[in-house]
Write a structure and sequence with these properties.
Elements lengths: L1 H16 L8 E8 L4 E8 L10 E7 L8 H5 L12 E5 L17 H16 L2 E11 L1 H12 L6 E5 L9 H6 L6 H8 L12 H4 L10 E7 L7 H15 L3 E6 L5 H22 L2
Parallel strand pairs: 3-4, 3-5, 5-6, 6-7, 7-8
Antiparallel strand pairs: 1-2, 2-4
């Protein structure tokens, strides 16, 4: 009986000690969000040598409009990217919420879910270094990362924005006229049917002026030179100029590409490399 048990015990100990392989690093998880009164899903990418006794930097990586918590895993090589290997990367479900508390539907409190419910869940379930938390995303998620990062600069030390929707919420009316009406219902649901002074609280250009340079997270901006959405490239340049004038900690990149996962899958690599460098500085 003992001889039969020993091989099983040895196998279990070996499995526990070996580094996590690529697909073993991926976790499908869920939590009940009090803020939304429903269960929400998330994907988690763990470091290959993950162990509960060590504290790891944490990155919240946000999906775009029409996406979900699996997009970064399904459409990019994030799992095999060596720059992702020393982080805990949390990719939450956020629907088409624009990552804000809805002004039209009071029960849709996505910011409260992300900053409150999800944050507490991740900290209780995974071994994270709370001094090295960051946030990044693509398109709608790039907008969400920027706004949440600017609204909670005490929480995040790094903000990554890939093809972010810097025209939200200020240009919702123009989007309808320019044939981008598919986005408008979700935008109206998030920000209300018409412009109000509350829009300033979710406008990156307004938020940046409310934060002192000393408390501002490091901002990493990248967009494709062939970005198809009218005016976004100019908005990116204008936002980068506002950071430059203030002498804020940031970097801005325009690289060949359009608004797609080929571009985002390529550009997440240098973003993660810069994030790792800022994480090392945070640990000193």
């Amino acid at each position: 009986m003992i001889r039969k048990f020993l091989p099983v015990l040895f196998w279990a100990l070996t499995l526990q000690q070996r580094p996590l392989l690529a697909q073993d690093r991926v976790r499908a998880d869920s939590l009940f969000s009090v803020s939304l009164s429903r269960t929400m899903h998330l994907s988690v990418l763990l470091p290959s040598g993950y162990e509960g006794q060590k504290k790891y930097p944490l990155l919240f990586l946000l999906h775009g409009w029409g996406g979900n918590e699996r997009n970064w895993l399904d459409f990019t090589s994030l799992v095999s990217d060596p720059e992702s290997d020393s982080l805990i990367i949390v990719m939450p479900q956020a629907d088409n919420s624009w990552y804000v508390n809805s002004m039209a539907v009071r029960s849709e409190r996505y910011e409260d879910y992300l900053i409150g419910d999800l944050e507490r869940f991740v900290r209780s379930r995974y071994s994270v270094d709370t001094a090295r938390e960051s946030i990044a995303g693509l398109s709608m998620g790039g907008y969400g990362a920027l706004v949440l990062g600017l609204r909670h600069p005490d929480r995040f030390h790094f903000i990554g924005v890939l093809s972010g929707s810097l025209d939200v919420p200020g240009r919702i009316d123009e989007m309808e006229k320019l044939g981008r009406g598919i986005l408008v219902p979700s935008l109206r649901r998030a920000f209300g049917a018409s412009r109000t002074p509350l829009w300033d609280d979710d406008d990156p250009f307004k938020l940046i002026g409310r934060i002192t340079r000393d408390s501002l997270p490091y901002i990493y901006l990248v967009t494709g030179i062939q970005e198809p959405y009218t005016g976004r490239l100019l908005l990116y340049r204008a936002f980068a100029d506002s950071l430059r004038i203030r002498n804020d900690p940031y970097e801005y990149h325009e690289t060949p590409g359009v608004h797609d996962f080929r571009f985002w899958g390529r550009e997440i690599r240098p973003l993660l490399k810069r994030l790792q460098e800022t994480n090392r500085k945070q640990s000193y």
